[in-house]
Amino acid sequence: MSTDLDVAVVGAGVAGLTTAHELHRAGLQVRVFEQQDHVGGRMHSLRHDGYTIDEGAEQIPLHGYRATWELLNRLRVPITDVPLIGKSIGMWRDGRAHAGVAEKSAAFSGAGLSPRARLDLVRFLAWSARHRDEFDCDHPERSPLGTATVKEFAARYHRDLHDYLLQPVAGSFFGWNTARSTAAPMVSLLLAVGDVGTWRTYRDGMDLLARRLADGLDVVTGSVVRQVVSDRGVVRLFVGGDVVTARSVVLCVPAPIAARLYANPSGEDSAFLSACTFTPTLKVSCLLDRPLAPESSKPLYVLLTPEAEDDALSGIIVDHAKHPGRAPAGKGLLSLMANARTIPELLQAPEQQVVERLTTAARRYVPGLESACREHFVHSFVHGLPEATPEALHRRARFMARPVGPVEYAGDWVMLRPASEGAVRSGALAAARVRSRLRASQPIVA
């Protein structure tokens, strides 16, 4: 049967665009369907009045992101477009910011940990060094931690290690409830990315990679895919009022959306999709008339606010310290990240109420914030970051071993790795699976 396309990709986030890029390079006819009017997904950046506002992702580590850096090199993105952040992460405790979180010196400086907890941090680092080879970001289910949650794993150590390190890191960067998500993916990722001193950002906004990938691809924005049906090796996409046929489809959307779109998945697909839950994310961007930041012994790029200290915020990102181009000269930009436990109620609240709740909480950490704010933007994603629940981790191996099919998947949730590297790696993997299937289905020419 003839089809409209070789491959249809649903979703123009980094996973979808990586998938389409790889398949386009292989000479296949590929089209990307995106519901929003822009590419980038959770890595989109909003430009407004000279400010560049990252709506979701914030940084790109130098280490542990091999697939991303290879992709950047292939796209000829110069290293000057991915500059070093060069600032510290702080932890709020006892009324002040303690710099040095995720730095090599943290076990000695404390970074918010009590002396007894620092000894346990040394124990943890020594244990992780001995077992480093057993932690694989691509296969977190194989780690020695099994399906223990972050909270269960932290119970081996002093309480501070959970309350003033693992919970704030999990809550801010991953959006996780430590009682629900497993430790293996988090520990694997932390070991891979290493010292915060090597972390970088994209000069012109976190959507730089998405925009470069989209160049030269057939991307249709504002296009709503309502359903995907596989029938005898051909896949039909119901797009608006039209039907598009393809030899293969790759669903590059969060697992709950993929489960809703795909009308007839296999049992193994369905089981893993159901297990892959997401936490919502929400933050408020504060456009300032001057550059403000939390007071600290070192310049901060992020201040983490643990649940033990704050029930509204999980952290504050100093965007103009992350890169000066995020705000006009002499101005400032802060992102206030909501606490994961508070987000569900904020998603239903009027926008002004959300702004008031988070900015009121942030005044404790940033004196002068109220008078410096010129404008606010609220950014939320109902499917913000994938959880790595014990059920999802348990089912992942069988899902990854499934035979190739007419409908494939890509996204950070496939890797149980809530990071852009997970999206890139899953996109490359999905493209390889599609190529293997389409090569096998080609007729033999005598």
Give a structural overview:
- With 446 residues, the protein is an alpha/beta fold.
- The protein has 2 domains: 179 residues, FAD/NAD(P)-binding domain, CATH 3.50.50; 229 residues, FAD/NAD(P)-binding domain (3-Layer(bba) Sandwich).
- The chain contains 17 helices and 16 strands.
- The strands form 3 sheets. Strands 1, 2, 7, 8, 9, 10 and 16 form a 7-stranded mixed beta sheet that branches.
- The longest helix has 22 residues.
- The protein is globular.
- The relative contact order is 0.19.
- The mean pLDDT is 94.
- InterPro entries: Amino_oxidase, FAD/NAD-bd_sf, Zeta_carotene_desat/Oxidored.
- This is Oxygen-dependent protoporphyrinogen oxidase.
- GO terms for molecular function: oxygen-dependent protoporphyrinogen oxidase activity.
In short:
This protein has helices at 14-25, 66-74, 106-109, 115-130, 150-154, 159-174, 183-193, 208-214, 255-261, 267-275, 319-322, 343-347, 351-362, 369-372, 390-400, 412-415, 420-441, and strands at 5-10, 30-33, 45-48, 51-54, 88-93, 96-99, 219-220, 225-231, 234-239, 242-251, 278-288, 300-304, 313-318, 332-338, 373-386, 407-409.
